[in-house]
Amino acid sequence: TEACLSEIEGAARLNAFVHVTPELALDQARAADARIAAGDAPAMCGMPLGIKDLFCTRGVPSQAASHILNGFRPEYESTVTQKLWDAGAVMLGKLNMDEFAMGSSNETSTYGNAVNPWKVDDRDLTPGGSSGGSAAAVAADLCLAATGTDTGGSIRQPAAFTGIVGIKPTYGRVSRWGIVAFASSLDQAGPMTRTVRDAAIMLGAMAGHDPKDSTSADIPVPDFEAMLTGDIRGKTIGIPREYRMDGMPAEIEALWTRGAEMLRDAGAKIVDISLPHTKYALPAYYVIAPAEASSNLARYDGVRYGHRARLAEGDGIVQMYEKTRAEGFGKEVQRRVMIGTYVLSAGFYDAYYNRARKVRALIKRDFDEVFAQGVDAILTPATPSAAFGLGEMQDADPVEMYLNDVFTVTVNLAGLPGIAVPAGLDAQGLPLGLQLIGRPWEEGDLLNTAQVLE
Ligand code: GLN
Predict the structure, then answer these.
(1) ipTM of the assembly?
(2) Residue 6 lies in a domain
(3) Domain tally for the chain?
(4) Cis ω on the peptide bond leading into residue 214 (within 30° of 0)?
(5) CATH code for the domain of 208
(6) Is 52 a catalytic residue?
(7) I need a surface site. Which of 63, 299, 387, 405 has the fewest CB within 10 A?
(8) What is the structure's pLDDT at 395?
(9) Domain-embedded: residue 37
(10) What is the residue range of 19's domain?
(11) 246-265 confidence digits (pLDDT tens)
């Protein structure tokens, strides 16, 4: 813990930690030492972690990197973080992210962007987003692991951009209670770690039924670490032809082929599969996610928590709401709230939101069908490119940024587990990741297969 605290101090340039909690960390570390001395050391005992800023942590700023939550210190602890502390883990502090987890580059944060520890020449790169601070912190060894959340790729894309492991569990595997909501039917928390084994251990500590989250599943959590046998003989791995996008960089193609070969060499059977509705996933996601966000973000009104605008003489409650939300939310968040409100409005509900829900059902059915045919996991690239430069997308059409999520959003729409594993370097020496998508509730199998790619 002390070593991590000093690493964090030395790495201020990365802007990964937005709030450090040294006293709390050292108290927790001493308690962990005592448990170890007493021979009662649970799985995560003494492990110093970073926590994404949208997990509510009691008495510690939890702002989802938004100005509108300025000064908010929750009175309660999220289920996930409480489980981690119960398992002996240590909190080093809170990690940077895109505002309300909306973004793919960590550039929408009220704290400014986080920086990828990997570089090309002297150019600073994005660590990805929205869990950019988590990815940068783990990749730069500022903590042993971090929590992330993934609504449309926010664990897997930053993991791929920084050469670490990130798993989004099956929807309902991990409690969402006490996590600032973005799109409730898509959001899942998961671990971001250096190795697949670490991910297995940490997911075991985070997962489990929680009566406080009605969407959390009452399904036993197996010992994921014990499932890492390295044996994948007889498994069937699907390669979905619709993920072979036009203009896919040759390096990504080569990485994908190499990944399939590694799995084949380990005894798996590789088959071509079709997921025909893939091309509608991105548009469906960018209707559903903003729709749910516009509803979830209605609670930030200047009354209950965080920032409240200064009012002029004669301003009433409506002006208070309007000014507070105009000042408190950044541009991307405002864009999503407007899109979400529009697609849910009476005149457009059927044309957009309802249509997107139907597309979502078809995307899920595509996956159900290939799993029913005996496919155990699906291999795809994690991202369409390696990490891009900071500021590079600033003036681009926002859709350019959304295209980054092309391989990851399908998994959230279908509620499936997905893992990103570092699988090689591109010609510039930057990390590239592969993604494995698994059957619902079979994270153990998925982690075991992912370990072969590591
Ligand atoms: N990049 C996606 C978005 O901006 C995904 C975000 C996420 O998974 N939280 O919505």
Answers:
(1) 0.97
(2) yes
(3) 1
(4) no
(5) 3.90.1300.10
(6) yes
(7) 299
(8) 83
(9) yes
(10) 2-225
(11) 888 999 999 999 999 999 99
